[in-house]
Amino acid sequence: MAEKIAMPRLGWTMEEGTLVEWRKADGDAVEVGEILFTVESDKALNEVETFSGGILCIPLDAPQPGDTVPVGTLLGYLLQPGEQMPTAPAPTPAKPVPVAKPAPAPTPAPTRSAGPTISPRARRVAAELGVEWRVLTGSGRTGRIVERDVRTAAARSGQAASAILTTEADATELVTLRPQLKAEDAPAPAYHHLIAKLAVVALADYPQLNAAGIEAVHLSLAVDTGDGLASPVIRDAHTKTWAELAAEARSLALQARRHTLEPEAVQGGTFAIVNLGMYGIDAFTPMLRPPHRAALGLGRIAERPAVREGRVVPRALIALSLTVESGLLENGAAPRFLDRLRALIERPELGLQD
Question: How many other CB atoms sit within 10 Å of the CB of residue 318?
Answer without folding.
Answer: 25
